[in-house]
Amino acid sequence: MEIQSQNKLSDLWWIVLLEGIATVILGLLLITQPVSTTGVILMFIGVYWLIEGILSIVRIFTKPGKAPWFWSLIIGILGIVAGIVVLGQPLLSATIISATLTTIIAIIGIAMGIMEIARGVQGDGIGAVIFGILSILIGIWLLLNPLAGAIVLPSILGIFGLIGGGFLIYFAIRVHSEIKKAES
After folding, report:
1. Average pLDDT in the 157-171 region?
2. Which pTM value belongs to this model?
């Protein structure tokens, strides 16, 4: 059984490597070409929502699930409308989606800041308190300036893409080398 799981891992490490490479490339594109890259991402989102909406409605007639049919109808209509809006109004969609994402990030940042301050007060030190205060201040700034936050959002996501992709590449290479060691 252990040999089978090792074989599965040795067959799959390269998927993590490809994901890391793709994430790094996307991160670079978001940093160097934020407007066009965001436009392409939004186009994919619009097409996805449109297709998912159509499939949700088709699913009502082909494979009824356990949930009532009207949920699939509602999801289908919302998906189709969202897909059409995103594809038909890409500039407006980019602004709305980015501002909404920025607002969500701001709220999460404020909540994380409060938790960091609580952690710091409970004994994790002044660093946690300082990080918490910074997180709250950035969150408040983003709430007060969602469009400004939306403008820098692609670059921030690009930086996260570079870091996350780098970690995925490193992890894939580590897993592959550990598998090679175990095989020899």
Report:
1. 92
2. 0.67
